[in-house]
Amino acid sequence: MTTIKIFDTTLRDGEQSPGVNLNNLEKLEIAKQLERLGVDVMEAGFPASSQGDFDAVKKIADTISSSTVAALARANKHDIDRAWDAIKGAEKPRIHVFIATSPIHMQDKLKKTPEEVIDIAVNMVSYAKSKCDDIEFSAEDASRSELPFLADIIEKVITAGATVINLPDTVGYTTPKEYGAMFKYMKAHVKNIDQVDLSTHCHDDLGMALINSIAGVENGATQVEGTINGIGERAGNVALEEMAVTFEIRKDFYPFETNLILNEIKRTSDIISKLTGMVVPGNKSVVGRNAFAHESGIHQDGVLKNAQTYEIITPELVGVTSNSLVLGKHSGRHAFKDKIKQLGFSLDDDKTAVAFDQFKQLTDRKKEVTDDDLFVILMDVQTDIKARLQYQLKNFKVEYNSSTSPTATVSLITPGLNTIEGQGTGNGSVEALYNTIEELIEEEIQLTDFTLSSVGKGKDALAEVHVSMTVDSQPVSGRATAQDVLEASLNAFINAINRVFIIQVAEKE
Ligand code: KIV
Ligand code: ZN
């Protein structure tokens, strides 16, 4: 068995998914879980892109110890300096330098000749190497690059100090045969290729990211880059959980394994789905809600007789547990603290008190409090950043009947601590609430996406709402959970607006 290194880019390529906008505590929470999952490398972000990204990468680099922490940089000194400043505190830092190598990107985007691109790549890899031992070089759009040119630039950047060579299928265009052949070609034509790890990086535009990544591995790649739940630019990246579970389930066929702790997969998927607002489709391989559900009578009968008749992956393998009833109305602080630990959270005393309070409020309204409910409460409390300036909901009311439009009344406490109140209407109750807030506050708001889902099952399940919007042209997302759909909708909207204050404060500091 050859061990294939897993390079997770959920926090960088995944964060580039439309509508995804994580705060620093959310990024840190994801990073900690990726470490628990056992990823060999996590790409924490692109520090030159904003002060917020720099801060998040730095915080992650200073916290994570067992995984390598990588930061992305274009092939220029400024980006490399920012990347290094952000990750130099890491136990195992890596600078990831990239430049495009396909004719279309070099001519039309970079406006550089192939010779100029080679010069820049070599100079910038050696500049990065003067700071950090571990340097990954990515030839962006490698799958549409000319093979002899690609071999030439790769050989030169390895001589300049690159330790990992990544060959991305940036636009998700390649086929397994072509992608595999590219790796084979590099193995045969680049004389120093055995000094480095070769890496795949596949996007899923044609639904071939997994099979292309596997083709890369079969032809010499020893690192696979991807994201959890397959999130990422456009159609996303290869879903790492699918890769790892494929190698496990088909170890009779593939001589490869990964270091991932497979039973941490479900929890990782849940955390990422919740914090990014990118809901996992029910039929998604490995982690979808229906991945282990057997609906037809014939299948159910077969599974009862022998689970392996229709079940190739057991839920336990990826950490799916039954949603057990946990604590009730009379549970005390001690039991609550034990449960926090069991669910893998570590909250300080103040946050534990806030979470306990929310749990108690929930037990007044909900008969059964499940692990799923607690998970949401704990994750919300753990990742909540209170801006010094922010809007707070004081009260709201919605009135309607089947023959009139809903009318909402909302009162808010402003960042200046004044109370403002207004009324508005809309075609639906949520729209009425949102229209009212838009009229009440000075910020210019454009809602771009709204999703509502339930946490667990049953009439009394919690409602979870994610919104994406622009506030004064700044893209932000917000989320909230409540037992009432309207309350969750309103709080998600206010949460998104308040995130702008958090970003503004981070940028000033
Ligand atoms: O898809 C791509 O080419 C990338 C590079 C920056 C590695 O994400
Ligand atoms: Zn990518």
Automatic annotation (TrEMBL):
Binding residue positions for Mn(2+): D13, H201, H203, N237
Single GO cellular component term: cytoplasm
GO annotation (BP), single: L-leucine biosynthetic process
The UniProt record lists the keyword Thylakoid: no
CDD domains the UniProt entry points to: DRE_TIM_IPMS
InterPro entries, per database record: 2-IPM_HCS-like, 2-isopropylmalate_synth_dimer, AIPM/Hcit_synth_CS, Aldolase_TIM, LeuA/HCS_post-cat, LeuA_allosteric_dom_sf, LeuA_bact_synth, PYR_CT
GN (gene name): leuA
Annotated GO MF terms: 2-isopropylmalate synthase activity; acetyl-CoA C-acetyltransferase activity; manganese ion binding
SMART domains found in the cross-reference section: LeuA_dimer (SM00917)
Organism: Halolactibacillus halophilus
Keywords: Amino-acid biosynthesis, Branched-chain amino acid biosynthesis, Cytoplasm, Leucine biosynthesis, Manganese, Metal-binding, Transferase
Enzyme Commission number, as recorded: 2.3.3.13
Family membership noted in the UniProt record: Belongs to the alpha-IPM synthase/homocitrate synthase family. LeuA type 1 subfamily.
Protein name in the entry: 2-isopropylmalate synthase
Enzyme class label: transferase
Gene3D superfamilies in the record: 1.10.238.260, 3.30.160.270, Aldolase class I
Cofactor(s) this protein cannot do without: Mn(2+)
Region annotation (Regulatory domain) ranges: 392-509
Assembly mode: Homodimer.
PANTHER family assigned: 2-ISOPROPYLMALATE SYNTHASE 1, CHLOROPLASTIC-RELATED (PTHR10277:SF9), HOMOCITRATE SYNTHASE-RELATED (PTHR10277)
Domain Pyruvate carboxyltransferase: 4-266
Pathway assignment: Amino-acid biosynthesis; L-leucine biosynthesis; L-leucine from 3-methyl-2-oxobutanoate: step 1/4
PROSITE patterns linked: AIPM_HOMOCIT_SYNTH_1, AIPM_HOMOCIT_SYNTH_2, PYR_CT
Catalytic activity: 3-methyl-2-oxobutanoate + acetyl-CoA + H2O = (2S)-2-isopropylmalate + CoA + H(+)
Functional description taken from the UniProt entry: Catalyzes the condensation of the acetyl group of acetyl-CoA with 3-methyl-2-oxobutanoate (2-ketoisovalerate) to form 3-carboxy-3-hydroxy-4-methylpentanoate (2-isopropylmalate).
UniProt key word Manganese: yes
